Amino acid sequence: MKFTVAIDGPAAAGKGTISRLIAARFGFAHLDTGLLYRAVGAKVAEGAEAIEAAQSLSESDLARDDLRSLEAGQAASKVAAIPEVRRALLEFQRRFARAEGGAVLDGRDIGTVICPEADVKLFVTASAEVRAHRRWLEVGGDEAQVLAEVRERDERDMNRADAPLRPAEDAVIIDTSDLSIDEAADRACAEVLRHR
Ligand code: C5P
Fold this sequence. Notes:
Blueprint: E1 4-8, H1 15-26, E2 29-32, H2 34-45, H3 50-55, H4 59-62, H5 70-79, H6 83-97, E3 103-107, H7 110-114, E4 120-125, H8 128-139, H9 143-159, E5 172-175, H10 181-195
Parallel strand pairs: 1-3, 1-4, 2-3, 4-5
The chain binds cytidine-5'-monophosphate.
C-alpha cells in the first residue's frame, strides 16, 4: 500500500512531533526533510560547496548529532534558498514518499512541490511567540534572541523565490498555539483516518 502524508509549517510549530506520532500510530516510514537541509548547511559551514554537498549527501551526514542547534537551522535555511540544492534533494524525497507501507514527510514544501498528490496534506502552524517559547524550552539561552531567530528564519523561508513556505491550497491548517500535543495529534490522526 502506498499512502503519503505531507506535513508542512514553520519552525517549532509541532510538525516533527505530530509526524512521529502519525508514523508510529499507522506504521508509516517518517522523513524529517529539514534534516537534509541541516546536513547540507553543516557541510557548507565546514567549507564545502553547497550544491556539491547536496548532491553527495550520505546517511552518515544525516546521523551527525550537531544538526539540531539554532545555528544549524539558520545554516539550513540559507542553503535551502539555492534552487540547485533543492533540486538535488528532490528525487530522494519523492522516492521516500512512495515507500511501500506508507510515508509521512515533514518540511516546508512537501504538499506544494515534493508531493502535490499526497493523500493527506497538513499545514501545522502557531504564533511566532509560542513557537519561540517552545524552542527556548528546548535550547535555553535568551528567549528574545530565540524569537528573533525564529522570525528571521520564517522571513527567509516564506520569501524565497523557489518553493517558499506556504500551505498547499488543499492543505488542512492546524494552528497549535492553543492546543496540547495530544489535541494537535488527535486532529492530525483524524485527517489521516478520513482518507485511509
Ligand atoms: O524543519 P527544520 O527546522 O529542521 O528545517 C530547517 C530549514 O530547512 C528550514 O528553515 C528551511 O529553510 C529548510 N527546509 C526547506 N524545505 C523543507 C524542509 C526544510 O526549505 N522541506
